[in-house]
């Protein structure tokens, strides 16, 4: 093996080591047209328009204004924490090498790999950028969560809070872009440098509340009480903020505790069955097994049918409409949770079954967030047989696109309470069509669900044919029955008059 090949192999293995793929800050994937297609149609879903986080877009002229804002944010954070800025920078500098290793082909503003000041100068330059970005993120999330109060809050500088609040839609979109992420270890290092526990605890709570608020924004009707998202930041830290939001939106939500945080309880299946008597309860063996095992996502739940063939290869499907599903007795229904992974076919005892999925409130910022969570899954995927939750957002996007064959289907989804937002029907259809078109994989969960739908059609041919006939001719049947009832009434009246005469 010559030196050129050896160096290429070494660089590839260093950049794409399997064990670290989930912790890297990825570029938006260009393979299979995902990056190129969406970058052309929706450039704001790939590159930031307002603020740069991390080195990939640092130094771009259109984002230069926010560099001064980030410096001011760093000052306010250090002032509130009673921490000398130099000490904070040193804490970030200590993890700079590890943080820089999370980025691919990182170059400084002058195009060199060391910032023009040698290795130490480049490291200090990189650490200073990380420090400002981390301070900005923490301050923004804290200011955002404090905006929910009914009274003015002076903890965050009023001018800064007003500026951030006025530009929240642009910031929310930019800080959730795949190429605009900050390694979470930098945030941990900065928080670890805070001398007291009060500010540190407040900031950590602000992060959890912000993630919960971003997650709730996807709902059509947000809950009155905001439940703060909790995770183990010591044993299971996220790779970055986008990964943390994806984790929140794809895992099974536990019950809310009295303190406004997530508890560890599981949903009550018996209550679910009582609310929906048409849904067949699981057999006793399956119910008992549900408490002893975990599904592919690691969440304890009652098992659904899982055709084995769907796990071995991708499925080929074409778009259908909600009306087509209703004709065979499958009713689209919002799921009880807001988790993107909460989708499935729940078979009824007689004719009517339910296909459940999380309802979605769509805006430009949330559309960008969805696409980038899906792109993150694409970057971390390794095979068709990945666990179902590994591509939950891809499956969710694919399912919504599958249900939209035309603008009338978008209107039907709105009427069913599954879709909401300011986008027009044509724009919504175009977005989901583009997203699904450029996804290299729809995910295992979508494949399993489509296999269940095909199995449903195969095993219920007689029932679905009968239901389809009644569904398509219901108006005619009602008219005929009404006419027959009227004729019977007239006949009985004539008999009564004849007997009396």
From TrEMBL:
This is Uncharacterized protein. It holds the Pfam family DUF247. Residues 251-261, 292-304 have a biased composition (Basic and acidic residues). InterPro entries: DUF247_pln. The lineage of its organism: Eukaryota, Viridiplantae, Streptophyta, Embryophyta, Tracheophyta. It comes from Zea mays. The keyword Hydrolase does not apply. The keyword Metal-binding does not apply. The chain crosses the membrane at residues 477-497. Keywords: Membrane, Transmembrane, Transmembrane helix. It comes from the Eukaryota. Residues 251-318 are annotated as: Disordered.
